[in-house]
Amino acid sequence: PVRDRPRRISIFGATGSIGTSTVAVLADRPGEFEVEAVTAFGNAGNLARVAKEVGAKVAVIADRNSFETLKEALEGTGIEAAAGDKGIEEAASRPVDVVVAGIVGAAGLSPTLAAIRAGSNIALANKECLVCAGELFVAEARQAGVRILPMDSEHNAIFQALGDNRMEDVDKIILTASGGPFREWTKQAMAAAEPAEALKHPNWSMGPKITIDSATLMNKGLELIEAHHLFDVGNDRLDVLVHPQSIIHGIVAFKDGTMIATMSAPDMRMPIGHCLSWPKRGGDVGLGLDLAKVAKLTFTKPDVDRFPALRVAREALEAGGWATNALNAANEIAVAAYLAGNIGFLEIARLVEDTIADVAAAGFDRTPETIKDALALDKEGRRIATGLIARHTARQPS
Ligand code: NAD
Ligand code: MG
């Protein structure tokens, strides 16, 4: 058989959870991929190790203070070292077959946009791009003629279930949620939940930000917004089901009554491998699932009273791109404040809701049309959320 040329890829956020799983996929499939760039925020030693492991051409560290350490660690390897946000954008501008967008948060906006403009397909884990500026990303991708391949497990499952079907035949798109560590907790217990408890996800091992998002179900809220942009469906055709086994990741319900669901073990190597091979499927990597061992799959409706983030996200989706941008900014600030011990668990969703209201009251309720607008609005949302936390903390009895 004729061997395909290796796929050229770049990995943004190469030292994180998505990045590490991506490197594991490459290790499972030797010779299939060539790596142009790997990037990370601040751990130069880790980044250098990953760069050597995958044989990258260039390694870029966002934190300029770590540049010398990176350069030293790469000495004699022939791997180029670079630093700073500019360095990351330059690496994103190098065209490849697929860019893995695995940076966490709004920090991924500029590099992902640069990659789109360079004509690379995007394997999108960084859902915050779509929550902050989905209209813009979808339009830019269309204009550049590139695909946004959903790497988030639910969206990847739906992408696979949709196949060649027409969206007009689709009744509903259903995202499953594990329910997180607090699925069965009372509201009272959740109010006192410690970060260490929220960081214990039952089924997935992921970075800290998305793990907290999974505990509040804000992650599912972000994913509703993500699905809206990826599949061009409105809030009314998007559903969430709590499915604690995390075996079915997404379901497409067709108007004719048929439902197509995608199943796999909860392991990010599956959606990552799918995006990297698309439109083909990857080879045998031994990730098959023993359904007899799983035995039982259950589904329930999410409890919006205990998990208000879902309602807040749906309202933001209805309100428009400015509101989802504010939602993301406030959520990033709120999660950081919760992890720092400055606010309680239930305050996260409340803070997000209040920030969106204040962003509107301040007259910023216009959907961003450029990346500059999106970043300016993001900054405003962060400023307002930070102010709300400062006032909240000042009110606390000492
Ligand atoms: P993580 O915290 O484990 O890793 C984040 C990566 O981004 C690291 O390499 C870090 O160095 C880099 N980074 C952080 N801030 C940066 C900045 N300012 N500039 C440049 N680089 C920066 O996060 P993760 O869990 O891998 O998640 C990454 C993204 O993928 C998130 O958007 C998350 O929602 C999404 N996602 C993750 C998973 C998962 O299984 N971890 C699943 C679905 C979607
Ligand atoms: Mg997901």
UniProtKB/TrEMBL annotation:
Residues engaged in binding NADPH: T15, G16, S17, I18, N43, N126, E128, G207
What are the required cofactors?
A: Mg(2+); Mn(2+)
What the entry lists under InterPro entries is as follows:
DXP_reductoisomerase (IPR003821), DXP_reductoisomerase_C (IPR013644), DXP_reductoisomerase_N (IPR013512), DXPR_C (IPR026877), DXPR_C_sf (IPR036169), NAD(P)-bd_dom_sf (IPR036291)
Q: In the Enzyme Commission scheme, what number(s) does this protein have?
A: 1.1.1.267
Residues that coordinate or bind 1-deoxy-D-xylulose 5-phosphate: K127, S153, E154, S178, H201, S214, N219, K220, E223
Example of a GO biological process term: isopentenyl diphosphate biosynthetic process, methylerythritol 4-phosphate pathway involved in terpenoid biosynthetic process
Pathway note: Isoprenoid biosynthesis; isopentenyl diphosphate biosynthesis via DXP pathway; isopentenyl diphosphate from 1-deoxy-D-xylulose 5-phosphate: step 1/6
Residue ranges annotated for the 1-deoxy-D-xylulose 5-phosphate reductoisomerase C-terminal domain, each copy included: 148-231
Q: Which domain of life is it from?
A: Bacteria
- Describe the location of the DXP reductoisomerase C-terminal domain by residue ranges: 263-383
Task: Identify which top EC class this enzyme belongs to.
Answer: oxidoreductase
Query: Recorded GO terms, molecular function?
Result: 1-deoxy-D-xylulose-5-phosphate reductoisomerase activity; isomerase activity; manganese ion binding; NADPH binding
Residue ranges of domain 1-deoxy-D-xylulose 5-phosphate reductoisomerase N-terminal in the record: 9-134
| Protein residues bound to Mn(2+) | D152, E154, E223
The catalytic activity, as recorded, is: 2-C-methyl-D-erythritol 4-phosphate + NADP(+) = 1-deoxy-D-xylulose 5-phosphate + NADPH + H(+)
- Which UniProt keyword terms apply here? Isomerase, Isoprene biosynthesis, Magnesium, Manganese, Metal-binding, NADP, Oxidoreductase
> Which Pfam family, an example, fits this chain?
DXP_redisom_C
Per the entry, what this protein does is:
Catalyzes the NADPH-dependent rearrangement and reduction of 1-deoxy-D-xylulose-5-phosphate (DXP) to 2-C-methyl-D-erythritol 4-phosphate (MEP).
Q: Which family does it belong to?
A: Belongs to the DXR family.
Q: What is this protein called?
A: 1-deoxy-D-xylulose 5-phosphate reductoisomerase
